[in-house]
């Protein structure tokens, strides 16, 4: 119980330190170095040189011209000189603009540009700016954000810096240098909250036109005020502040996700990064940077799935980090890793033949697109999908290849690799498959009389899954077709006819839909037509009667 009470009192002290203005009781404790005296000390650090006598009295210094190195003196903060110090753009990606407080002029932001009191920075889409302050604190302003610099000052050369900024819209993260004295101050304001730190790393978000703010603490602790209340948020926790309301109870942030396997070199553009899903995560944020500090981003995206396609970037080494987002929009702890992208020159795309296309005793011309990064291509042709049995391996500057050079029947697999002018091989392209089959034998039909009095046509079965198309016509050109049927068995029964000749032909339909040529035409003789004798005999019978 005593320990809990002590922690509560410490927290109150910290909040009081962060949010109250400095009073005369606030003191800077200075350690004397060799060569110091009260006169030069006052000239260097105090607002008035004449303060040296007051300083001598409150520190009981008997000889102001001789100060012992290593001893300490107490200096009221109200006596220390204060001067404006600009911040500076440390790095930038994409586009951002600065609106000058004095002239209202809007300028394109650039690296090393100074930022003064009252200036406003606006970042564009897929853009970001990292700002370095006088104490080397870094604030990263992410895309589509607006930040105003409300206070930029330093206490002379003491190293104590007072920086206050307002996040009007968007997202930022901060890495704040540990305070070295009571005059050090770093605050981030949003329309609904104030957060004060003394050496920490945390993120701030202003949503819904500033009506809602999220504060997420990664390192150290942050004092957050909203409405008329204050709360202390420790590392690994976050809070949400709505306009006019107290900060929500600090909530533990989601843990860092764990990546699934990442190859030593990623050889595919837009390769899909995956990680294990987190309980309680409603979405995930993925960010890519060229350095581990992530001061500015090359790309970022939010997805409700535990996967993200990496952006199209030049080959090189990059860093990626992922964190979960809970139902309040609080973003959790992040997992970071480095990856190598080696995806160029990109392979061309195969055009023809289509994948798994079949041919009959015909060898296709392989065709592919042009790769803008390639000077030539490596073509590989094999009889197995693993390319262990290579039939062809050659370089070409053309974008097609006549596969008659490998005039064999069977299955074929082919793939392409781009090669640059300096001989660099890119990643291997997709594998395409085609096959060349023999032309099916034309059915040779035999006719016979069945036991049931029907005529039976039959022919040889030459493969599995075959079907057969049968046609019977009154003319040998098959213009007047009277039978057009498909059967699954190699035979066809039909009733005999009388009168003129008829003609029959059959062709095979392979399992893949390929149709053979028609077999030879069979002539079907009609039975004798004796109907006229029956008529004569009938007339004779009538006459006799």
Give the % helix: under 10%
Number of strands: 42
Question: In what range is the share of β-strand residues?
Answer: 35-45%
Radius of gyration: 43 Å
Distance between the termini: 138 Å
Q: Which second-level CATH architecture of the largest domain applies?
A: Sandwich
Largest sheet data: 18 strands, mixed
Report mean pLDDT, rounded to a whole number. Answer: 90
Oligomer: single chain
Integer count of domains: 5
Tally of contiguous helical segments: 4
Please write the CATH class name of the largest domain: Mainly Beta
Unreliable sequence segments: 1-25
Strand pairing plus helix content: what structural class? mainly beta
Tell me the overall shape.
elongated
CATH topology of the largest domain: Jelly Rolls
SSE arrangement:
Elements: H1 2-19, E1 27-31, H2 38-45, H3 52-58, E2 72-76, E3 83-84, E4 87-93, E5 96-99, E6 106-108, E7 114-115, E8 120-123, E9 128-132, E10 138-141, E11 146-154, E12 161-175, E13 185-189, E14 194-197, E15 201-207, E16 212-219, E17 221-226, E18 229-234, E19 237-242, E20 251-252, E21 272-274, E22 283-289, E23 299-303, E24 307-309, E25 316-325, E26 331-341, E27 350-352, E28 357-360, E29 365-368, E30 376-382, E31 390-396, E32 400-402, E33 410-419, E34 425-428, E35 432-437, E36 446-449, E37 455-458, E38 467-473, E39 481-487, E40 491-494, E41 502-509, E42 522-524, H4 531-544
Parallel strand pairs: 12-13, 28-35
Antiparallel strand pairs: 1-2, 3-11, 4-7, 4-9, 5-6, 5-8, 8-11, 9-10, 10-12, 11-12, 12-15, 13-14, 14-17, 15-16, 16-19, 17-18, 19-20, 21-24, 22-23, 22-25, 25-26, 27-29, 29-32, 30-31, 30-33, 33-34, 33-35, 36-37, 37-40, 38-39, 38-41, 41-42
């Amino acid at each position: 119980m005593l320990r809990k009470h002590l922690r509560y009192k410490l927290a109150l002290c910290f909040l009081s330190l962060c949010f109250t203005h400095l009073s005369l009781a606030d003191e800077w404790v200075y350690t004397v170095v060799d060569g110091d005296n009260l006169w030069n000390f006052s000239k260097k650090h105090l607002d008035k040189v004449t303060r040296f006598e007051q300083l001598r009295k409150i520190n009981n210094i008997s000889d102001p011209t001789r100060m012992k190195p290593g001893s300490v003196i107490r200096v009221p903060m109200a006596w220390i000189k204060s001067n404006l110090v600009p911040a500076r753009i440390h790095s930038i990606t994409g586009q951002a603009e600065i609106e000058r407080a004095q002239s209202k002029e809007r300028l394109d932001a650039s690296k090393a540009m100074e930022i003064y009191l009252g200036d406003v920075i606006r970042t564009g889409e897929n853009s970001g700016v990292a700002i370095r302050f006088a104490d080397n604190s870094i604030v990263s302003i992410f895309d589509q954000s607006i930040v105003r610099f409300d206070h930029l000052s330093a206490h002379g050369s003491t190293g104590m810096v007072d920086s206050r900024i307002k996040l009007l819209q968007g997202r930022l993260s901060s890495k704040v240098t540990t305070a070295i004295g009571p005059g050090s101050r770093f605050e981030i304001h949003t329309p609904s909250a104030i957060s004060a730190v003394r050496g920490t790393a945390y993120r701030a978000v202003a949503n819904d036109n500033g009506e809602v703010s999220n504060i997420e603490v990664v390192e150290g602790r942050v004092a957050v005020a909203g409405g008329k209340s204050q709360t202390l948020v420790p590392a690994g926790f976050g809070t949400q502040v709505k306009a006019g309301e107290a900060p929500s109870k600090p909530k533990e942030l989601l843990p860092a996700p764990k990546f699934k396997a990442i190859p030593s070199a990623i050889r595919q553009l837009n390769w899909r990064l995956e990680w294990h899903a987190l309980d309680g995560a409603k979405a995930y944020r993925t960010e890519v940077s060229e350095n581990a500090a992530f001061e500015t981003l090359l790309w970022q995206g939010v997805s409700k799935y535990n996967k993200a396609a990496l952006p199209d970037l030049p080959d090189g080494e990059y860093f990626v980090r992922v964190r979960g987002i809970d139902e309040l929009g609080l973003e959790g702890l992040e997992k970071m890793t480095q990856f190598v992208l080696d995806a160029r020159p990109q392979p061309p795309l195969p055009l023809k033949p289509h994948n798994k296309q079949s041919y009959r005793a015909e060898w296709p011309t392989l065709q592919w697109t042009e790769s803008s990064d390639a000077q030539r291509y490596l073509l590989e042709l094999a009889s197995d999908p693993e390319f262990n049995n290579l039939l062809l391996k050659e370089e070409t500057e053309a974008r097609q290849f006549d596969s008659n050079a490998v005039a064999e029947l069977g299955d074929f697999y082919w793939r392409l690799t781009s090669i640059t002018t300096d001989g660099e091989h890119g990643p291997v392209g997709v594998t395409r498959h085609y096959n060349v089959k023999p032309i099916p034998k034309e059915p040779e039909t035999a006719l016979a009389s069945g036991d049931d009095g029907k005529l039976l046509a039959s022919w040889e079965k030459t493969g599995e899954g075959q079907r057969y198309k049968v046609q019977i016509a009154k003319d040998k050109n098959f213009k007047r077709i009277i039978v057009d049927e498909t059967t699954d068995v190699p035979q066809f029964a039909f009733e005999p006819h009388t009168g003129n000749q008829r003609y029959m032909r059959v062709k095979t339909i392979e399992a893949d839909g390929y149709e053979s040529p028609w077999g030879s035409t069979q002539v079907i003789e009609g039975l004798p037509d004796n109907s006229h004798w029956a008529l004569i005999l009938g007339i004779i019978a009538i006459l006799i009667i």
